[in-house]
Amino acid sequence: MRATEEDSGKSLSQLELFFRPSSVAVIGVSTMRGKIGHEILRSIVDGGYQGKIYPVTISAKEILGLKCYESVLQIPEPVDLAVYALPSNLAPKIIEECGQKGVKNIIIVSGGFKEVGGSNVDLESEVVKIARRYGMRIIGPNCIGVFDGKSRFDTFFQSHERMVRPPHGPLSFITQSGTYGVAFLEEAAEDGVGVSKMVSFGNKADVDEADLVRYLGADEDTRVIAIYMEAVVNGRRFIEAVSEVAAKKPIVILKSGRTSLGVKAARSHTGWLAGSYQVARSIFKQAGIVVAEDFEEMYDCAKALALQPLPRGRRVGMLTNGAGMTVSACDAAEQRGIFVGTYSEETKKKLEEALPKFALVREVVDLTGSATSKEYKITMESLLSDDGIDLVMPFFVFQDTPLDEGIIDVLPEMQRYGKPILGVYSRGIYGREVARKLQ
After folding, report:
1. What is the pLDDT of residue 10?
2. Is residue 289 within 8 Å of residue 246, measured between CB atoms?
3. What are the two backbone dihedrals, phi and then psi, of residue 90, each rounded to the nearest 5 degrees?
4. For residue 255, what is the enclosing H or E element?
5. Measured at the alpha carbon of residue 298, what is the angle toward residues 268 and 330, in degrees to the nearest 5?
6. Where are the beta strands (DSSP E) in 65-131?
7. To 5 degrees, how large is the angle CA 39–CA 89–CA 177?
8. Which CATH topology does 1-141 take?
9. Contact predicate 107/15, CB 8 Å
């Protein structure tokens, strides 16, 4: 048992070098803007990475003020991580050289492996065999790599001018799709939500979801894990990993490949065959994982879990100045086994005395369109202090003029109760502006 734990610790320690290497070699760097290798190098430099950077190319002596090397074997110092951005047919030779150099880990950004089928399936297998012979770990191929919010290290070929990186924070995202990775980080940056780590793992020839979930489960900077996946290679291993980690950290999963067409698309995307969605969904829920139906729901769930304390139970107090949204919310709550309006008679009486006569103090406290920030404060304090409520959901129609922007000062005061507050607002330009201020 001890040997197993030691091996696990070594594995997690090696995965750490993907995010915080002391040195990195970028293999396949071009002098031209817009080329993948050049943009990866520029992202590492522009991000403020503090380690040693070694461009590897035969086309220049110096790029971005950094000395270039024709081969990784010519680099005079140890290399923790290599980022590969050359054509796939050159991979076996270059990976062999990385092994000889003593490189610990490799991110293969390039495509042209298993996802295209034919002999390229064997090419990917050959690369993995070489890496394992030297004890190297691989993320990819066919990916954009990693982002670390604390060290500011990232291997993306999306420039800083086009893609904003979020601040450091408690949310981590692992994804089979680089596109979803970009979208997730952009959403987080726009919302000011901090990200600990993002990993795009592509074909997952070596490092897969189970490895990354276990790593993030042990990562002190990660509080919530979001996952986008198309197919699972080893279902039992993955479920064991998420079940173990979900007991201490929330996990939100979005799985695609739910239909025959989606399964076909998943296979052409990363070379993996997606299984039955309904079976996967059932297993995920049994493991205590939040299952999202689309990208927006996955992001919103992960964000809410990252920014709020976890609820102690399933009892929700709702209040609103526009009843329509809460009708839909009540339907959704009952379908999911969530109880609404479980506050005490004492709290009900207190609210009836404090609020205007036209306010409806029922399962949902409807303050009506005349609601002010003062009435929201009274209601939220009453619900949050009630032992029968685990979570409070204020619904806002910010467009209703009586609801003044004093509400922005009200919500921070509510944090002293130590219960989660999940705000919902009606869409619109003004609504989004106020919601951002509240967040």
Report:
1. 66
2. yes
3. -90, -5
4. strand 251-255
5. 135
6. 66-67, 81-84, 105-108
7. 50
8. Rossmann fold (3.40.50)
9. no
pLDDT above 70 as % of the chain: 93
Q: Show the tokens assigned to 131.
A: 């890496």
**Which tokens hold the place of 117?**
């089928």
Q: Which residues pair with 290 in a beta bridge?
A: 252
Residues facing 105 on adjacent strands:
81, 137
What's the maximum distance between 2 C-alpha atoms anywhere in the chain?
81
Rounded Cα–Cα distance for residues 320 and 425 (Å) = 10
Provide the b/e sequence for 394-406 (b: ≥16 CB within 10 Å). Answer: bbbbbbbeebeee
Number of neighbouring beta carbons within 10 Å of residue 338: 18
Percent of the chain with pLDDT over 90: 81
CATH fit for domain 311-438, picks 3.40.50.2300, 3.40.50.261, 3.30.200.20, 3.30.70.20: 3.40.50.261
Q: Distance between alpha carbon 266 and the CA centroid of its chain, in Å?
A: 20
Cα-trace Rg, the chain: 25
Q: Which residues contact 22 (CB under 8 A, 6 or more apart)?
A: 51, 52, 78, 80
The one-letter amino acid code at 96 reads E
Do the Cβ atoms of 419 and 309 come closer than 8 Å?
A: yes
Q: Confidence class of residue 367 from pLDDT cuts 50, 70 and 90?
A: very high
What is the C-alpha separation between 102 and 219, in angstroms, rounded? 26
Superfamily of domain 164-307: Succinyl-CoA synthetase domains (3.40.50.261)
Structure tokens at 75: 């680099």
Give the angle subtended at the CA of 360 by the CAs of 355 and 364, to the nearest 5°.
110
Q: How confident is the model at residue 432 (pLDDT cuts 50, 70, 90)?
A: confident
Whole-prediction pTM value?
Answer: 0.88
- Non-local CB neighbours of 30 within 8 Å, separated by 6+ positions: 36, 37, 38, 57, 59
Contact criterion met (CB below 8 Å) for 411 and 383:
no
Structure tokens at 197: 């780590």
- CATH 3.40.50.720 residue window(s) in the chain: 1-141
Q: What is the DSSP string of 417-430?
A: G---B--EE--SHH
Tell me where in the chain the CATH 3.40.50.261 domain(s) lie.
Answer: 164-307, 311-438
**pLDDT tens readout for residues 291-308:** 999 999 999 999 999 999
Report the C-alpha gap between 376 and 374 in whole angstroms. 5
Q: Are the C-beta atoms of 121 and 114 separated by less than 8 Å?
A: yes
Token pair listed for 32: 């031209």
Residue 154 identity: D
- Residue 229 to residue 176: CA distance in whole angstroms: 5
